[in-house]
Amino acid sequence: MTGVGLLTPAGIGTKASWETVRNGTKTMAAVDPSLWQIPAALSCRVPGFDGEAFLDPVLARRTDRFTQFALVAAREAVADAGLDPADWDGARVGVVLGNTAGGMETVEEQCSILEKEGARYVSPLLLPKMLPNMVAGQLSTLLGATGPGMVVATACSSGTTAIGVARDLLAADRYDIVLTGATEALVTPAIIAGFARLGALSHRDHDPAGSSRPFDRGRDGFVCAEGAGVLVLEREADARARGVTPHAFVTGFGASSDAHHVTRPHPDGQGTQAAINAALRDADAIPEDIGYVNAHGTSTPVNDRLEAALLAKNLPHGPPISSTKGVTGHLLGAAGAIEAAFTALALREQVVPPNVNLTDPEPADLKLPTFPERHSFDLALSLSAAFGGQNAVLAIARH
Fold it and tell me: What biological-process GO terms show up in the record (predicted)?
């Protein structure tokens, strides 16, 4: 992992996002005026983001917010990796991004126009802006990446799955450089209403800053967030030949399906268990090697309880565990990519980011730091789970 680019509710750019998460600074979650008619209308937005301020204005007007996020994050990641698209062989550069539902902001806007004004007033850019694959197409065009390009959709594990797929394709010599990660911009009325109807969202409208509280007994649901994380992956020998020191190494990937229920995780956690086991085998590691876990930790009563029980069972040596969703909210399809980046940065700096809003831990026997904690560790896990029972786990190493 030679390059990292982030846009999150914790800040624009990797430096701002990581500092906010590392320090456990509460940045979320103001009541969103556009969602005032919906119960539990909390959200975590990328602060002060305007696509036309970060991209060519014409390109910004022709792309949905989810694509704009990815383009800006990718540009930062490429620069961080010390790469110049003018110098690379585009045929050996690939794009593998994760996303859940494409440009829903555009869809909802154009559906309203269709209903109120008629079909002739629907934008001809509706499909180019909203289709999920367009983010890979636009990024390939922007950076001249003519190798394989694709979008992976596994709901809230999309980002983790995309990184795993990218790593495998890189190992198979399909690429020399791969831009991977995920992007999401689903803070829209229809999506928030849908999550609200499922009972998945926090109702702490009276306490927005305290609404996302993973592993806390008082949790009552997640807060919907937006953002993007893009990583540059290369083979180690290629990076070293360029004189680049990687941030971290993606050494293992595991994925599984619960085959149980479309929205509820398996009560025994067997799907996540299988993904963890696969990631450890791929990394040639054992559970005792794990020094930190970036948990899925959504702040929902069911997920956190099951995940905590699974981690306690599988990692009895008690490594520190944290969910950065206490700061960022739940970034849905982009969560895994952004959390993989945070895990890599934690390894690089040897510091564990805290669990925010954790005042009454459940369970009490896990090591859940509430302040930034200096910690020596060489291997970490980053966990994701999703509607549809799709689980994904990355093993990320310091060396």
Answer: fatty acid biosynthetic process
Specify the higher pLDDT residue, 196 or 183: 183
Angle among Cα 197, 199, 204 to the nearest 5 degrees reads 115
Catalytic residue among 44, 247, 266, 296: 296
Measured in whole angstroms, the distance separating CA 263 from the mean position of its chain's CA atoms is: 19
For residues 376 and 378, what is the distance between their CA atoms, to the nearest angstrom? Answer: 7
Residue 30: per-residue pLDDT: 59
CA distance 363 to 343: 23
- pLDDT reading at 34 higher than 70: no
Q: What's the predicted TM-score (pTM) here?
A: 0.96
What stretch of H or E contains 384? strand 379-384
Q: Which of 44, 224, 247, 330 is catalytic?
A: 330
Task: Give the mean pLDDT of 93-115.
Answer: 97
Query: Omega into 29 within 30° of 0, i.e. cis?
Result: yes
**CA pair distance 94, 273, nearest whole angstrom:** 31
Contact 169, 96 (CB under 8 A): yes
**Residue 6 confidence (pLDDT):** 98
Q: Is 156 a catalytic residue?
A: yes
* CA distances, 367 to each of 281, 295, 349, 354 (Å): 24, 12, 19, 11
Catalytic member of 44, 156, 224, 247:
156
Length of the chain, please? 399
Read off the pLDDT of residues 151-169 as tens digits, 9 standing for 90 and up: 999 999 999 999 999 999 9
| Domains and their CATH numbers in the chain | 3-241 (3.40.47.10), 249-397 (3.40.47.10)
| DSSP state for residue 224 in the 8-state scheme | E
At 104 the three-state DSSP class reads: helix
